Amino acid sequence: MSNYETILVEKNEEGVATITINRPDKMNALNTKVHEEGVAALEELQKDDEVRVVVFTGAGDKSFIAGADISEFAGQTPVTQRAVFQQKTLFNSIDTFPKPVIAMINGFCLGGGCELALACDIRIASENAKLGQPEINLGIIPGGGGTQRLTKLVGDGMAMELILTGDMIDAEAAFDIGLVNSVYSAEELEEETMKLAKKIASKSPIALQMAKEAVKTASKSNLDEGLKREIDLFAITFSSEDKEEGVAAFLEKRKPEFKGK
Ligand code: COA
What we know:
261 residues; alpha/beta; 2-enoyl-CoA Hydratase, Chain A, domain 1; 2 domains; 6-stranded mixed sheet; 4-stranded mixed sheet; 11 helices; globular; binds coenzyme A
């Protein structure tokens, strides 16, 4: 793996890579460099067949990501800011990344941080996490997918309340509205997230990719288109050696060994 300035990238032997946003003195705020390096790291991890699942988290024990780096907003014009968000952002790179991505939310998860978590496939939070879209307090609105992905996940009413008030909610409230999948104590967060990531990493990488694409299609198309796409993706899994292995292992009453072929 390349060396990066603003992120740390680690891989374990069970196929899980962790990307840690490493600006703890700035609450891991997302500046341009983090976006560039995060996008580059995902491009590397996409090509790495050993990596089957990616986990995003923040350095330190206070913050996952406290939003876009507000200091970079000063002096931006509509034209320059639009260009920044039209470039390859980390939000879109995560959204289109073919392997499963989990957000391990270990503290403040605000603004662009919440949007990054929303672009991930699964969100696991620690009890001390605080989540929200506080952009309205700066006189702006979310621009990294927050108004769209949050609404699709939690529905219009809750998304409106979070976006219009800018209020932060705790992990338990986030769980209640479906914004996070599970909540653990700060001590258990990493172990439990890794347990989940390793379980997913043990499945067929081809089936994971098809499953992710199929589920994503549900929020990006209408039901008829989605059902058609699902059949195509389902059919593609029948071309894999992993499907033969999965079926054989079931019939032979043993654990399958998926190779991603
Ligand atoms: N962009 C840039 N810097 C940020 C930041 C952000 N989004 N969030 C925090 N920081 C910086 C602070 O400016 C401070 O830097 P300094 O030590 O050089 O002054 C450092 O991180 C620590 O933050 P601080 O505010 O002192 O910590 P806190 O515990 O009192 O409060 C937060 C934590 C997250 C509640 C608070 O920092 C905050 O509200 N951040 C902005 C959240 C936001 O509006 N995000 C959406 C942006 S669109």
